[in-house]
Amino acid sequence: MAVGSGNLAELKTYAFEQITISSTALRLGAGRTTGQQPLYALVQCETGQIRYTLDGETVPTATVGMLLDVGTAVEVWGLTDIQNFRAIRVSVDSQLNVTYAKSAV
């Protein structure tokens, strides 16, 4: 599933991280986004369902937000949506695998 639009041919992968999502809504790793200007993030849910939001205002809860099932991924396009991404577990802690890409130019 893609959020936003982009062209992978113009991007270069620069970072990977694993994030544990628990009962407090978390953003994607600030150390991976600060000063890097990521344009794309691939977020895979490895364990435990999560709910996420991208609008920068709505804080996800176990019942509010977009549902991401175990074994599925969401593509997040654009610096603003990447910075606004917040996630929380649905019932059990979750591990997210995240790959970041920025402009290759």
Features:
4-stranded antiparallel beta sheet, globular, 105 residues, 10% helix, 47% strand
Plain-language structure description:
The chain is mainly beta and 105 residues long. The protein has one domain (2-103): Jelly Rolls (Sandwich). The protein has helices spanning 30-33, 79-84; strands at 2-3, 11-21, 26-27, 40-47, 50-53, 66-68, 73-77, 86-89, 94-103. The protein has a five-stranded mixed beta sheet with strand order 1-7-4-9-2. The longest helix is centred in the last third of the chain and has 6 residues, at 79-84. The chain is globular, with a radius of gyration of 13 Å. The two termini are 25 Å apart. The model has no long low-confidence stretch (mean pLDDT 90).
| Helical content band | under 10%
Distinct helical segment count: 2
What is the percentage of strand-forming residues? Answer: over 45%
Instruction: Give the radius of gyration.
Output: 13 Å
**Total number of domains:** 1
Q: Which spans of ≥5 residues are poorly predicted at pLDDT below 50? A: none
Main β sheet profile: 5 strands, mixed
Any idea what the CATH architecture is?
Sandwich
| CATH homologous superfamily label | Jelly Rolls
Shape: globular
Distance between the termini: 25 Å
The CATH class label is Mainly Beta
Q: CATH fold name, please? A: Jelly Rolls
Instruction: Please trace the helix and strand order, writing H or E for each element.
Output: EEEHEEEEHEE
Overall pLDDT confidence: 90
Helices and strands: which structural class? Answer: mainly beta
Enumerate the strands of the largest sheet in spatial order, edge to edge or round the barrel: 1-7-4-9-2
Count of beta strands? 9
